[in-house]
Amino acid sequence: MTSNTFNSESAAFPYLMESPLKPVVTLNGNEFIYFAGTGYFQLQSHPEVLRAAIEATEKFGIGSATSRTINGTTPLLIQLEKKIAEYFQTEDAAYLPSGYLSNLAGLQALQKLKLFDVIFIDENAHYSNQSGAMATGKKIIPFRHLNVEDLKNKIKTYLGKNQKPLIITDGLFPIWGTIAPIPDYLELAEKFNGVIWTDDSHSVGILGKNGRGSYEHYNLNSPKLFMGATLSKAFGAYGGFVAGNSSFINTLKKGQVMTGTNSPPNALAAAALKGLEIVQNNPGYRQNLYKNALYLKHKLTKLGLPVEDNNLPIVTFSFNDENKMQNIQTNLMRQNIFIQFIKYIGSGDNGVLRIVISSAHTTTHINKLVEALKKVL
Ligand SMILES: Cc1ncc(COP(=O)(O)O)c(C=O)c1O
Q1: CA–CA distance, 210 with 212 (Å, rounded to integer)
Q2: Which of 122, 222, 279, 306 has the fewest Cβ atoms within 10 angstroms?
Q3: How many angstroms is it from 352 CA to the middle of ligand 1?
């Protein structure tokens, strides 16, 4: 491994990814067994996903250079939206250029339908949820991360007479891999005549018997529940979506985000369609992911790391000492293992070490990670 190219703290983007996403990737000229990012099934390099993207590009070109509202809707976009609605068992769905924009568009549509007056948002909800909340111009009250009691108190304190709350959360939080207590939030939404918006970007494909995400995980079905997510993680593609009832999706499709953006590239719509199909038809991906997560967590517990005992693919720990954590990451890289040292919403100021497992890792990959960790902890 050459030693001069990585870990440049001053660079905004210190790593150059020079290979497709697979269990072993090339970063800054060196090969690493890769335990980062969010490609939970690594479909980003699946041959069928790639072929779908290439064929769509040849057939429809890159893009339409206009918005959906004008004439940017291709048959592929319609097909993808139908597929998303079928997968998530909703009346309709909208495909957007990114997950980030899905939150903006979804929250804007809820506002347009006058479904809420005051926003209550988990303090660690994703940046895009925070941006979407701010863009509504409504009063925003943050509540303590995952804390139902605090949410209840805040609603009682800040919600005016005849006002309705909107509760905003991530489904599965990206840094610590924790799941929001949505059934408790739903009780509050029902009691106060409000609604819930969940950014399910890290849960779709992963949580629930059929990979429909947080609501399926909890067996919830209610007209008060709304959701959006990205297609760039478990589904191996790119872009975002919002799934829901027809009137909500229609409102969203006529909203500013849809009207003001070019329609997403056909290659990515085709990739998403294939990714959804693969996940839907192959529950083995999810089972492998769970199996790998359990195996890794069992091994890390034996190393004495404080690891949650569950089958979710994110393992995070913090030593509250930035230098120590950066050294651990660098020393792992010297053994050709890549995990993330990351500062992100929810990580705290010192950052955390985050390991992400995928269904594509083998026991050998995981054992190598554990052996390398033993040497540097
Ligand atoms: C929780 C969450 N929501 C939304 C997004 C944004 O999705 P996209 O990258 O598709 O814009 C991300 C980031 O990747 C995320 O982690």
Answers
A1: 6
A2: 306
A3: 19
Has residue 87 been placed in a domain? yes
CATH number for the domain that contains residue 78: 3.40.640.10
User: Within this chain, do residues 184 and 255 fall inside the same structural domain, yes or no?
Assistant: yes
Q: Is the CB of 99 under 6 A from ligand 1?
A: yes
Question: The tokens 């069992």 sit on which residue?
Answer: 298
pTM above 0.90, yes or no: yes
Residues 326 and 273 in one domain: no
Q: What is the pLDDT of residues 104-124, one digit of tens each?
A: 999 999 999 999 999 999 999
Domain check: are 259 and 332 in the same one?
A: no
| Number of C-beta neighbours around residue 319 at 10 A | 15
Question: H-helix or E-strand containing 60?
Answer: helix 47-60
270 neighbors 76 (Cβ within 8 angstroms): yes
Q: By residue range, what is the domain housing residue 78?
A: 47-281
79 lines ligand 1 (CB under 6 A): no
376 alpha carbon to ligand 1 midpoint, in Å?
31
How remote is the CA of residue 239 from the centroid of ligand 1, in Å? 9
